[in-house]
From TrEMBL, chain A:
Belongs to the binding-protein-dependent transport system permease family. LivHM subfamily. Keywords: Amino-acid transport, Cell inner membrane, Cell membrane, Membrane, Transmembrane, Transmembrane helix, Transport. It comes from the Bacteria. It comes from Amycolatopsis ultiminotia. Its main location: membrane. InterPro entries: ABC_transp_permease, BCAA_transport_permease. This is Branched-chain amino acid ABC transporter permease. It is a multi-pass membrane protein. It is found in: Cell membrane.
Length: 339, 401
C-alpha cells in the first residue's frame, strides 16, 4: 500500500470508492449505533487491558503473551460449547435457565483456562528469569517468544482455519437508545465487564491481597522486608489478569463466534495494550476508560473516514493523547501511594 | 515429512468436522425460490478430456512439479482443495505409468504476499522442479510472479483472478480460469437480473483480489452500486460497516474478499436485521464459509469462474475415494492444470524451458474447459457460475451468460 497507490485510486475513484471519505451523514445517522457497538467492543478491550496494566504495574513488564492468554480462553469457550453437544450451524433456541447455566459454565471454563495459562506462563517463562536477575529487555523478548510459542501450539493442534462458529444465543435487539439498537450480547458484555472491573478494583484497593499487590508495585524490596511474599503476589497478579481475559474471551466469542483462531488474539491484544497505555498503564480505572474510548473512537473513525481507517484512527488517538499526557489519561497509579 | 503428517491431521479434522456438521440439529432448507432462474444443469465432462493416466507407457527421468500456495495459513481450505485436486492427477499418472514417476512437492506460502516471495525463491532454486501449480491467491501471485519469470519456471494458477496479473509481461504466468474482468460484470448481472437488486453495497477487503474485483463489479453495477466500504484482513468486528449498511437499506451486499472475514461479516449483517441478499465471489465459496456464517449462510449466494464438478463423475468419484470429501472450489481446475504439466513430462519435456514451451503451445480439452492460452496467459473461453446454499451445502445455481 504505497502512497502513490492511494493517490491513484483517489484520482480513479468511481461512484464514491475514494481512499478517504468525509461521510458526515452516516456518522450522524449511525452515531448511536456506533457508540453502543463501540462500548460493547471497548468493554472487551478494557477487560484484556486490565491484564496488561496489572502485570506492568507490579513487574514493569509488558506481557506480550497476554493476547494468547485471551485466545486460549476463546478456545476454552468453544470447546465447552462443543462438549455440551452444540455444533456449527443454526443457532439453537434454548430455554432461559439452561442457557444461563451453559454460559456460566463456559465463563468458568474460559476463566480457568486463561487464568491457568497466565500462571503457567509466569512460572515457565518469567520466574526463572527473575530468579537469575535478568535485565528487563530479556523479559520483553521472552514475552514475545512466549506469545509465538503459545500461538504455534494452537496452530499445530488445531490448524490455520478458525473453529467453526458455535453460538447459543442469537444477538437480537432488546431495545433502542435514540434509535441505536442495543442487543442482548451488548447488554451482557457491558454489564458483566463493568461488574468484573469494579470487582477487580475493589480487590486491588480494598483487600489484604490487593494491599500486597500495591505494596510490591510501589517498592518490591521494602514490601519483601515487611513480610510480603513477592512471588505469591506476582502469581496472583497474573492470575487476576488471566481470569479477566478469560471472561473477555467468552463475551468476545458470544459476539464473534468465529473468533477462535490461532492468531485471533494478536490484533485484539495490541488494541487492548493500546487501551491500557491510553488510560495510563498501571492504572486499573485507566484501562477501563482507555478500552471504552478506543472502542467508540474506532467506530466513529470508520463511519466518518471509511472502514480502512480503523487502525489509523485508533493509533492516531494514542499518539495525540500521549503528546499531551505522556502517562496516559489518568496517569500511572498502581505504583504510586494513594493517601 | 512432518508437514505431510500435519496436513493429514488437518484433513482428517476437516473431514470430521464436515461429517459432524452434517448432523447439525437444525439446518434451514435453502432459499432456492428466491433466485429468478431455476438451477441450471451441470456440464458433463467432454469425452476427449485429457486423462493424466495417458497410455501408461510414458518414460521419463525423475522430475518434480510443485504445488505452492496456502496449506495451513489463512483461508487454508481454498489451497487444500487445489492441492488435493493436483495430487489426484499426479497419483493417477504415476500409478498408470511405472516408467515415469513425477513427484509433487508441496510448499506452504500461507497465502500471504509477504511470505510467498521467500517460498517461491526456494522453489526457483530447486532445480529438479520444472513446473508449478499455483499460486492460488492474487496478492501472493503479484508479489512472487517475477521470481517465476526470472527462473523461467512455468506457474499455472488454478484460481488467481486479479486481471492485472496477466499484464506484467511475465512469460511464465498462466491461469486456468477467467479473470475478474469477467467475474465482476457477471456478478453484477446476476445481482441485478436474477436477484432483482437495484441498490447494492460493495464491501471490499484490503487484498489485491478483493480491491480488483470490487472495482470491476462497481463499474459494472454503475448507478446501482449505492454504497461502498472497506474492511481489513483478519478483522472480526464489523459493527461500523454493518451500521452503515443498515442505514443504506440495500437489496444486496457483495463482499469482495475471502471466506475468513466473510463468515463473521455475513453473520453480523444477519444479526443486525439487514435483509439484503449476501453475495460473495470465489474466495468466499467454501464450506468453511457455510459453517462459519451460521444462520446467515442459508440465504447467501456465490459467483465463481469455476465449473460445477457434479457431472464429472469419473473425477469426483476418484477424488472422493482419495480424500474422503467432495471436490471443493477449484479442485477440478487444479486437476486439469496438473494433468497438463504431467502430459508435458510424458511428452519428453525434462527441463523448465521445455515444459514452459509445452504449456505455452498447449491446445487441448480438460474436464472443466478447453485450454489454449493467449500471449498473456489468459484463456479464450471462460465461464462464470453462481452457487447457493441448500441444506447446509453449496450447490450450483445458474451459469451467467
Amino acid at each position: 500500500m504505497s502512497m502513490t497507490h492511494d493517490l491513484s485510486s483517489l484520482v480513479l475513484a468511481q461512484g464514491g470508492s475514494d481512499w478517504i471519505t468525509f461521510d458526515v451523514d452516516s456518522f450522524l445517522n449511525q452515531f448511536w449505533d456506533n457508540t453502543i457497538d463501540g462500548l460493547s467492543y471497548g468493554s472487551i478491550y478494557a477487560l484484556v487491558a486490565l491484564g496488561y496494566t496489572l502485570v506492568y504495574g507490579v513487574l514493569k513488564l509488558i506481557n506480550f503473551a497476554h493476547s494468547e492468554v485471551f485466545i486460549y480462553g476463546a478456545y476454552a469457550t468453544w470447546f465447552t460449547f462443543y462438549g455440551l453437544g452444540f455444533r456449527p450451524g443454526a443457532t439453537p433456541d434454548l430455554p432461559l435457565l439452561p442457557l444461563i447455566g451453559f454460559l456460566l459454565l463456559a465463563l468458568v471454563a474460559a476463566m480457568a483456562v486463561s487464568g491457568g495459562t497466565a500462571v503457567a506462563l509466569e512460572r515457565v517463562a518469567y520466574r526463572p528469569l527473575r530468579k537469575r536477575g535478568a535485565p528487563r529487555l530479556v523479559f520483553l523478548i521472552t514475552a514475545i517468544g512466549a506469545s509465538f510459542v503459545l500461538q504455534q501450539i494452537l496452530f499445530i493442534w488445531r490448524g490455520g482455519n478458525p473453529e467453526n462458529s458455535i453460538r447459543l444465543l442469537r444477538n437480537d435487539e432488546v431495545f433502542t437508545i435514540f434509535g441505536g439498537s442495543v442487543t442482548i450480547v451488548t447488554i451482557i458484555t457491558v454489564v458483566a465487564s463493568i461488574l468484573l472491573m469494579v470487582g477487580a478494583d475493589i480487590f486491588v484497593n480494598r483487600t489484604k491481597f490487593g494491599r500486597g499487590i500495591r505494596a510490591v508495585a510501589q517498592d518490591p524490596d521494602t514490601a519483601t522486608l515487611m513480610g510480603v511474599n513477592k512471588e505469591r503476589v506476582v502469581t496472583l497478579t497474573f492470575l487476576i489478569g488471566g481470569l479477566l481475559a478469560g471472561a473477555a474471551a467468552l463475551f468476545y466469542m458470544m459476539k464473534i463466534p468465529q473468533g477462535a483462531s490461532y492468531q485471533g488474539g494478536f490484533i485484539l491484544g495490541i488494541k487492548a495494550f493500546t487501551a491500557a497505555v491510553l488510560g495510563g498503564i498501571g492504572n486499573l480505572r485507566g484501562a477501563l476508560l482507555g478500552g471504552l474510548l478506543l472502542g467508540v473512537v474506532e467506530n466513529y473513525g470508520q463511519s466518518l473516514f471509511g472502514g480502512a481507517w480503523r487502525d489509523v484512527v485508533a493509533f492516531a488517538l494514542l499518539v495525540l493523547i500521549l503528546m499531551f499526557r505522556p502517562t496516559g489519561i489518568l496517569g500511572e497509579s498502581l505504583g504510586k501511594a494513594r493517601v | 515429512m512432518q508437514r505431510a503428517r500435519l496436513t493429514k491431521v488437518i484433513v482428517l479434522a476437516a473431514a470430521g468436522a464436515i461429517s459432524l456438521s452434517a448432523c447439525a440439529a437444525r439446518t434451514d432448507s435453502g432459499s432456492g425460490g428466491d433466485s429468478g432462474a431455476p438451477q441450471a444443469a451441470a456440464p458433463s465432462a467432454a469425452a476427449n478430456a485429457a486423462d493424466p493416466a495417458g497410455d501408461g507407457k510414458a518414460q521419463c527421468s525423475p522430475v518434480s512439479i510443485a504445488y505452492a500456495g496456502t496449506i495451513n495459513g489463512a483461508n487454508a481450505a481454498l489451497g487444500q482443495n487445489i492441492l488435493k485436486g493436483a495430487k489426484l492427477a499426479v497419483d493417477q499418472h504415476n500409478k498408470a505409468n511405472p516408467g515415469c514417476q513425477v513427484k509433487l512437492e508441496q510448499f506452504d506460502t500461507e497465502g500471504t504476499p509477504d511470505k510467498a516471495p521467500g517460498i517461491v525463491t526456494q522453489i526457483a532454486n530447486t532445480q529438479n522442479i520444472i513446473g508449478v501449480i499455483g499460486l492460488p491467491f492474487s496478492g501472493e501471485s503479484k508479489a512472487a510472479g517475477n521470481i517465476f519469470n526470472s527462473a523461467g519456471l512455468v506457474a499455472v494458477s488454478p484460481s488467481a483472478t486479479n486481471p492485472s496479473l496477466a499484464q506484467n509481461g511475465w512469460k511464465t504466468f498462466f491461469r486456468a480460469l477467467g479473470n475478474d474482468n469477467t467475474q465482476g460484470p457477471a456478478a453484477a448481472k446476476f445481482i441485478t437480473d436474477e436477484l432483482k437488486a437495484s441498490k447494492v453495497c460493495v464491501i471490499e477487503d484490503d487484498s489485491e483480489y478483493g480491491t480488483g474485483l470490487a472495482a470491476s463489479i462497481t463499474k459494472a453495477l454503475g448507478a446501482k452500486a449505492t454504497c461502498q466500504d472497506k474492511v481489513k484482513t483478519k478483522q472480526t468486528d464489523f459493527s461500523a460497516v454493518v451500521n452503515k449498511i443498515k442505514g443504506e437499506k440495500p437489496d444486496a451486499v457483495f463482499y469482495s474478499g475471502y471466506y475468513q472475514e466473510a463468515a463473521p461479516f455475513a453473520q453480523q449483517l444477519n444479526d443486525a436485521g439487514v435483509a439484503a441478499k449476501f453475495v460473495g465471489p470465489d474466495g468466499v465459496k467454501d464450506d468453511q464459509f457455510v459453517k462459519g456464517a451460521g444462520d446467515a449462510a442459508a440465504t447467501s449466494y456465490f459467483t465463481c469462474p469455476c465449473v460445477p464438478a457434479d457431472q464429472f463423475t469419473k473425477f469426483t468419484d476418484a477424488y472422493k475415494a482419495a480424500t474422503g470429501t467432495d471436490p471443493g472450489t477449484y479442485s477440478p481446475e487444479a486437476y486439469d492444470v496438473a494433468t497438463i504439466l504431467v502430459k508435458g513430462i510424458d511428452a519428453g519435456k525434462k527441463d523448465r524451458a521445455g515444459l514452459l514451451d509445452f504449456v505455452k503451445n498447449y491446445d487441448g480439452q480438460g474436464i472443466t474447459k478447453h485450454f489454449k492460452w493467449d500471449a498473456h496467459g489468459e484463456l479464450a473461453a471462460t465461464t462464470v457460475w453462481t452457487y447457493k446454499v441448500e441444506n447446509g451445502k453449496i450447490v450450483r445455481n445458474t451459469e451467467i451468460k
